[in-house]
Write a structure and sequence with these properties.
Blueprint (H helix, E strand, L loop, with lengths): L2 E2 L4 E4 L6 H10 L2 E5 L2 H7 L6 E4 L6 H6 L5 E3 L7 H8 E2 L3 E4 L6 H13 L5 E4 L3 E5 L3 E4 L6 E6 L3 E8 L7 E2 L6 E14 L4 E6 L3 H10 L8
C-alpha cells in the first residue's frame, strides 16, 4: 500500500471538479490522494496531496515541479486506469472519488467498472449531480420521501428491498435486461443484494448520509 489510513480519504481525478463538491468531500475525508492530473485540481484548490498515483500522462509539469518527489508514484501499467491504481494502492475505511465522472463517458464507465472489480473497497464517486457507489451485501439508507434512487446492475444480480416505491424483490437485474433507474424512496430504504454488481445512484446532496451508512454497515464483499 502507498497510503494506508484509518479515516476516509478523498481521491481526485482529472475530470472537472466543482469547488463545492470538493469542499464537501474534504469535510468528510480531509486527506487527499490525487490520481495523475487530479494533482493539478488539488493544488489549484490549495490542497497538498498525500500522494499522487498514476501513469503521469496528464499531470502538468508545473504541478510536478511543486510536488515533493517522495509523494509521486508513477506507474507505467496501461492495463488499469489511474482510478484503479488508486483503488489498489490506497487503504482506508472509505474513499470519496471526485473527478472521475462527468467529462467523458468512457472514463465514467471505466470508473463504474472499477467499483465492481474492486468491490471490497468502499468508494463513493461524487459528481456535480449524482453520486454512485457499489451496494454492499446489506445497506440501510435514511432517505427522505421522494428521493430519487436508481439501481443499475453491472452484471446479473438479485436482491430484496424495503422502502422503495417499486421493490426489487423477485427481480433478476442485468445490464442487458431489467434495470432499476428512477425509483423513489418512500422513506428509509434497506437493500440486500446477492452479488457485488449493483450500483446505487443518488443525488449528490445525500453524500453525508451515504458516508455514514457505508461506514456503519458491517456487511462487506470479500476481495476478488
Amino acid at each position: 500500500m502507498i497510503v494506508r489510513e484509518n479515516q476516509p480519504i478523498a481521491l481526485v481525478g482529472g475530470a472537472t471538479v466543482a469547488p463545492e463538491r470538493l469542499r464537501a468531500a474534504l469535510r468528510l475525508a480531509p486527506l487527499l490522494v490525487a490520481a495523475d492530473g487530479g494533482a493539478d485540481t488539488a493544488l489549484a484548490a490549495g490542497v497538498m496531496p498525500r500522494a499522487v498515483i498514476g501513469d503521469f500522462d496528464s499531470i502538468s509539469e508545473a504541478a510536478r515541479a511543486r510536488l515533493p518527489e517522495t509523494i509521486l508514484h508513477e506507474m507505467a501499467d496501461q492495463d488499469t486506469t489511474d482510478f484503479e491504481k488508486c483503488l489498489t494502492h490506497v487503504s482506508a475505511p472509505l474513499l470519496i472519488g471526485l473527478g472521475f465522472t462527468g467529462d467523458r463517458v468512457d472514463h465514467q464507465m471505466a470508473a463504474c467498472t472499477a467499483l465492481v472489480r474492486h468491490g471490497a473497497q468502499r468508494c463513493i464517486l461524487l459528481g456535480n449531480v449524482d453520486l454512485i457507489f457499489l451496494c454492499p451485501p446489506a445497506l440501510s439508507l435514511p432517505l427522505a420521501v421522494g428521493c430519487r434512487v436508481s439501481l443499475f446492475p453491472m452484471g446479473a444480480v438479485e436482491g430484496v428491498s424495503d422502502g422503495l416505491r417499486w421493490p426489487i424483490d423477485g427481480l433478476r437485474l442485468a445490464p442487458d435486461g431489467r434495470i432499476g433507474t428512477s425509483n423513489l424512496a418512500e422513506g428509509p430504504v434497506t437493500l440486500e443484494v446477492s452479488a457485488p454488481r449493483l450500483l446505487v445512484i443518488l443525488p449528490a446532496e445525500t453524500l453525508d448520509l451515504v458516508v455514514a451508512a457505508l461506514l456503519s454497515t458491517q456487511a462487506t464483499w470479500s476481495p476478488a
